[in-house]
Amino acid sequence: MTEAPGERSISDVVDRMSRLLDGLPPQLAARRVFLATYLRTTQAVSKAIDGASFEDPGWVAAWDVVFADLYLDALEADLAPDGRPPRPWALAFAAPSDLPPLRQVLLGINAHINYDLPQALLGVITDADFADPVLLDRRRRDHARIDGVLAGRVAAEDDELSAQSAKRPLDRVLTPLNRRASARFLREARNKVWHNTIELQHARLAGPDAYAVRLAELELLSAARIADLLAPGQVLLRLAVAGFGVVLPPVA
């Protein structure tokens, strides 16, 4: 399993996920769906790193650790008696437990990509890195290459989720379309995440207060997107119309 620079590795993340998965009580079985999906995806990312799929594998490994920790910290906060996870995660975790597994996964993906991913990128791209166009382009390309890993998991994860619950007729009809649409959703999300990362980096340059304001904006936008996905109806069709991600508006 790939090692990330520093004190923690992707192996440590996988161990942490596995411990949390094993420790979830039966009444929180809905939490298992996204966590198990994320565990398998993390293992796929590690395999891709070891397979030389990225220009800077050490950076991708470090990024993956920071990214996963944001979700796992939110999950542990939700499990703690007095924990307070960020608003997008609080809404996702509070979703009805009888939602279909696919809906549970989409809620988790949306919160994690829209709210956590820009923060994770900032955690492993310094302000000096942002000032280096050659290095920044390399980071952007590796960011894009993650899409290939995720797209490679779509069919397997859809089969896994299908095995957990019977699909309605409309879901079965939409499955091929959903798999084709996944690439578009990933591309759209990646572009929006990169925009939001740049906006947060500009705020970081302006100081802690400015950054806190912009992060609060992103939290609010991401939470609103989760609330939209919790509305009744065919969520995948709604995503196809409204799009996947959120966009921080430029500072006036």
Short description:
This is DUF5995 family protein. With 252 residues, this protein is mostly helical.
What does this structure look like?
It holds the Pfam family DUF5995. This is DUF5995 family protein. It comes from Terrabacter terrigena. By secondary structure, this protein is mainly α. The protein has one domain (10-242). Helix content is 77%, strand content 0%. The protein contains 10 helices and no strands. It has helices at 10-23, 29-50, 57-79, 87-93, 101-124, 127-130, 133-164, 169-206, 208-229, 235-242. Helix 7 (133-164) runs antiparallel to helix 8. The radius of gyration is 18 Å and the shape is globular.
Describe the secondary structure blueprint for this structure.
Elements: H1 10-23, H2 29-50, H3 57-79, H4 87-93, H5 101-124, H6 127-130, H7 133-164, H8 169-206, H9 208-229, H10 235-242
Low-pLDDT regions: 169-177
Total number of β-strand segments? 0
Percent of residues in beta strands? under 5%
Q: Into which percent range does the helicity of residues fall? A: over 70%
Q: Which structural class do the helices and strands define? A: mainly alpha
Mean pLDDT: 85
Write the element-wise H/E pattern from the N-terminal end onward: HHHHHHHHHH
Number of domains: 1
Rounded Rg? 18 Å
- Gap between N and C termini: 45 Å
What composes the largest sheet? none
CA-based shape: globular
The number of helical elements comes to 10
